[in-house]
Amino acid sequence: MTTSSQTYKELSIPFSKETFDCIDEVMREMHLPYYLVGANAIALELLKKGVKPSPGTKDIDFAVMIPSKDEYENISTALEGKEFNRVSTPFNFYSEKFNIVIDLLPFGELEENYTINFNERRADLHLLGFKEVMEEAIPVYIEDKIANIPPLAGMVILKLIAWNDRPEIRFDDLPDILKIIEHYYDFAWDEIVNRRLCKTVILPVFCLVERK
Predict the structure, then answer these.
(1) CA–CA gap between residue 168 and residue 74 (Å, rounded)
(2) CA angle 50-156-4, nearest 5°?
(3) Higher pLDDT, 53 or 120
(4) How confident is the model at residue 56 (pLDDT cuts 50, 70, 90)?
(5) Topology at the third CATH level for domain 3-211
(6) Domain boundaries, the chain
(7) Contact 103, 62 (CB under 8 A)
(8) What is the share, in percent, of the chain residues with pLDDT greater than 70?
(9) With contact defined as beta carbons under 8 Å apart, do 136 and 127 qualify?
């Protein structure tokens, strides 16, 4: 079920629409599913309750499920044709035109022990949990596009894994997790209440009936 629409302006990232247009066009041409992850995915979800995103980020993180490195190379070539060029690592792309960075994180059949190895120094990409979390992805309208994002609980899992992998450089993960926790009850109140009701009322009554 698709949730309410947000706007690129609300994300507070310059040229975010142009970036989404580039990604969406490439992925549609190749018939590949893709997902918005990271801080911007969290921002889209929190915006539904009027919680404004943290300012400052010029990175947009996408995850794409692909079967092979050749497929990833095809995506990379297509992005380079749209003036997004690879920089420090094979999964980072920078657009000088938009002054924005894309992290394109491949996962799926090409993983080996939850890791993508690009055969370049310090270019291993650890993707534990991506496949499982993306199975519960939520479609969210952002103007004329649909962004598939992980549920908030899944975002916490991915953030914890990423932080645990490289805590010395992952400075934003724990504050992002704290922000989710701070607002989680606003989003999941009905589910939380129903589960508590089931545990404290419905299940005991059912067990009593069964015993009789």
Answers:
(1) 32
(2) 35
(3) 53
(4) low
(5) Beta Polymerase; domain 2 (3.30.460)
(6) 3-211
(7) yes
(8) 74
(9) no
